[in-house]
Amino acid sequence: MRDMITKLAILRGFLASAFDEWRDQVWRRDLDEYYCCSGGLTSWDICGCGGVTVRETFRRPSPQKEGGE
């Protein structure tokens, strides 16, 4: 029983950390702003995210239909 309580406490820590990251990276930002940079070619604009928006960064791809439709 003690191990289960410890595991649940660890889960609580994971969830709190994930919530904090979500709040900072998604909730407090405009979904259409650049995630990290505009992806331009200037030296101060290259950050590696390719100029994607917050929305594009966290959007899940839609599941593909079976049979290639």
Helix content, binned percent: 40-55%
Beta-strand percentage range:
under 5%
Rg, nearest Å: 18 Å
What sequence of helices (H) and strands (E) makes up the elements?
A: HH
Average pLDDT rating: 85
Instruction: Please state the overall shape, judged from the principal axes of the Cα atoms.
Output: elongated
Number of helices, counting only DSSP H or I runs of 4 residues or more: 2
**Sheet with the most strands, sense and barrel status:** none
Distance between the termini: 50 Å
Please give the number of β-strands. 0
Describe the structure.
- With 69 residues, the protein is mainly α.
- It is 45% helix and 0% strand.
- It is built from two helices and no strands.
- The protein has helices at residues 2-27, 54-58.
- It is elongated and about 55 Å long.
- The N and C termini lie far apart (50 Å).
Question: TL;DR?
Answer:
With 69 residues, this protein is an all-alpha fold. The chain has helices at 2-27, 54-58.
Topology:
Elements: H1 2-27, H2 54-58
What distinguishing features does this structure have?
single chain; mainly alpha; about 45% helix; about 70 residues
